[in-house]
């Protein structure tokens, strides 16, 4: 089982990224804990030292399975479904600007909150059209570079758009690109899915990335999700990518990451994964 945890390349408001702050120091701490990879949360690839980040992760003997892009919405309100055409364009440009870095890192680009939260008075047909245009444009550019994108269903309290896995899969069909798959997140699935296991099984080979957090968005083992069943189901689909810890940094980042990893490694042994 390949396990990563999230690290932000810049300070950010989002509270479920376990590690923020000094990058090299944190990368070394994450490696020491025994993780195999680091999922990066990057607001803007244009303002980071990409080579230094790649070198720091490689020096720590780790991989970068995925790059999260949601800070563009969280910090700058860039969105695929903004009523303002210039903002939509900037959001698409921002996602496209992740592609060269993702290619070098060998990472999947996560498309989550950058879809935005459309105004209530925006017609549904406009929202759908903007989403399809934005995804098709980004997928085309990524495909040319050999990069994959992962769409994340996000619960109803964070966005009104595409909250469930079934809706997400239907959307993928409409977009129509093989380099677009799904990111399943146990926290969101616990809120939205009738059955987490059925949703995982239904997504099957379209799972490109996976986030773990317990029911309360603490580290796994701190809530009441049935992780043995969830992981068994995930690996039965043939999934061989990373499971990535995206949970609250409570009671403190180090304890949360260490306890979460310990729990997952125990399950790995128990289930023979
Ligand atoms: C991002 O991966 C996520 O899960 C969202 O909850 C971000 O707000
Ligand atoms: Mn997530």
Keywords:
globular, 273 residues, 11 helices, TIM Barrel, eight-stranded parallel β-barrel, binds L-Erythrulose, single chain, binds manganese (II) ion, alpha/beta
Descriptive notes:
With 273 residues, the protein is of the alpha/beta class. The protein has one domain: Divalent-metal-dependent TIM barrel enzymes (TIM Barrel). The chain has 11 helices and 8 strands. It has helices spanning 23-33, 50-59, 71-76, 85-96, 99-105, 124-144, 165-175, 186-192, 196-203, 227-236, 253-271, and strands at 2-8, 37-41, 66-68, 108-111, 149-151, 180-185, 207-212, 242-245. An 8-stranded parallel beta barrel has the order 1-2-3-4-5-6-7-8, surrounded by 5 helices. Strand 4, helix 6 (124-144) and strand 5 (149-151) form a beta-alpha-beta unit. The mean pLDDT is 96. Manganese (II) ion (MN) binds at residues 152, 185, 211, 246.
Please give the CATH class: Alpha Beta
Give the % helix.
40-55%
Distinct bound molecules:
L-Erythrulose, manganese (II) ion
Number of domains: 1
Q: In one word, what is the shape?
A: globular
Average of per-residue pLDDT values: 96
Terminal Cα span? 6 Å
Q: Architecture, according to CATH?
A: Alpha-Beta Barrel
Per CATH, the superfamily is Divalent-metal-dependent TIM barrel enzymes
| CATH topology tier name | TIM Barrel
Strand order of the largest sheet: 1-2-3-4-5-6-7-8
Q: What share of residues are in beta strands? A: 5-15%
Radius of gyration: 17 Å
Structural class designation:
alpha/beta
User: What about the largest sheet?
Assistant: 8 strands, parallel, barrel
Number of helices: 11
């Amino acid at each position: 089982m390949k396990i990563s945890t999230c690290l932000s390349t810049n300070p950010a408001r989002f509270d479920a990224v376990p590690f923020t702050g000094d990058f090299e120091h944190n990368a070394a701490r994450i490696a020491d804990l025994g993780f195999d990879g680091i999922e990066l949360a990057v607001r803007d690839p244009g303002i980071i030292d990409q080579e230094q980040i790649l070198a720091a992760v490689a020096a720590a003997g780790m991989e970068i399975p995925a790059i999260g892009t949601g800070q563009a919405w969280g910090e700058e309100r860039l969105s695929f479904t903004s009523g303002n055409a210039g903002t939509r364009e900037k959001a698409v440009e921002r996602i496209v600007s992740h592609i060269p870095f993702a290619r070098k890192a060998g990472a999947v680009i996560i498309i989550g909150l950058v879809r935005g939260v459309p105004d209530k008075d925006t017609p549904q047909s406009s929202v759908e059209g903007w989403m399809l245009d934005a995804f098709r444009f980004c997928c085309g550019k990524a495909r040319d570079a050999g990069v994959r994108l992962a769409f994340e269903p996000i619960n109803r309290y964070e966005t009104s758009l595409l909250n469930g896995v079934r809706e997400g899969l239907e959307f993928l069909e409409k977009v129509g690109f093989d380099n677009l798959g799904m990111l399943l997140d146990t926290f969101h699935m616990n809120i939205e899915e009738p059955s987490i296991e059925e949703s995982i099984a239904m997504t099957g080979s379209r799972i490109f990335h996976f986030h773990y957090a317990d029911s309360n968005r603490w580290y796994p083992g701190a809530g009441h999700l049935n992780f043995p069943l969830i992981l068994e189901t995930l690996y039965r689909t043939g999934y061989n990518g990373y499971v990535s810890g995206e949970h609250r940094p409570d009671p403190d980042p180090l304890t949360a990451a260490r306890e979460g990893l310990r729990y997952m490694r125990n399950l790995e042994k128990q289930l023979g994964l």
